[in-house]
Give the backbone structure.
Amino acid sequence: MAYDLQEQEQIDSMKAFWQQWGKLIGGAVLAISVAYLGYKGYGYYQSAQASKAAVVFADVEQAAQTQDLSKVKSAAAQLQADYAGTAYAADAALLAAKVAFEKNDPATAQAQLGWVVQNVKDESMVAVAHLRLATIQLDQKHYDAALAELGQAHPSAFDALFLDLRGDVQTAKGDKAAARDAYKAALAKLVGDSPNRQFIQTKLDALGA
């Protein structure tokens, strides 16, 4: 009888527990389940988006090989509109800028690179966009604009490239002292036997340093 009474007390205790906490626990379990399914669903969505974007990017690459700027721009625009969150959109913009520059369309090149700067989170891609924008500005003799691009924040791994191009801009401006400083700083940033070392040193020597 004592056993039955103890068992009944345990049952009553469990009933009281679930009456008090059952809804809260059930809600928590449901919330966790929904969050997990949402996470998994988002993962599937991201994977599907990337797969679709890859197909469009293949069109960009194919058009770039034939220098068909119109098709490159069209496919890149689709990626930027529908799959902006994928790496393919950024890659397409950089490739479109390259083709546009080679086809003597700097305005389109700048627009594509500007999209990367404004919309892409990857710091390395943004740094590449700034370098290419500076190159276009240098080509157009817009030296101050080029220097402004080179003054943008970037990963330290790009320091030598930014300084080297800064030296080129200062050389074009006729400011030999500033060019020397930039080239020397670029050389100091290079690691070991970098293939760019001799190239930069040659430009520095040409300034009479």
